[in-house]
Design a protein that fits this description.
The chain is mostly helical. It is 55% helix and 0% strand.
Length: 94
């Protein structure tokens, strides 16, 4: 049976699981519970809001796309950061 491209083999999966368990223990030693604590601006689901977006947010997302198409990356980055501060990941929505 052929393995799907990009799938982990048993040895790689075991090694990765071990690294994650070590990382979880290091976080707990610092008083951080990995299953509960999240960084500022974290949105469950990777920045995809669960409800409808406000007209302001829709407008900012459209503006972000326009800036990228116009190759104004400096301004596009600023708009993206503003959206991220509000927990919205533009790359997941446009």
């Amino acid at each position: 049976m052929a393995r799907e491209s990009g799938a982990l083999g048993p040895a790689a999966y075991a090694a990765m699981s071990w690294h994650f368990s070590v990382l979880r223990e290091q976080l707990r030693a610092r008083g951080i519970e990995p299953g509960d604590d999240r960084p500022p601006g974290y949105v469950k689901g990777g920045g995809i809001p669960s409800g409808p977006l406000s007209p302001r947010t829709e407008s900012q997302l459209d503006y972000w796309v326009e800036l990228k198409r116009a190759r104004d990356f400096e301004m596009a980055d600023k708009v993206r950061e503003e959206l991220r501060k509000r927990g919205i990941e533009p790359g997941n929505l446009r």
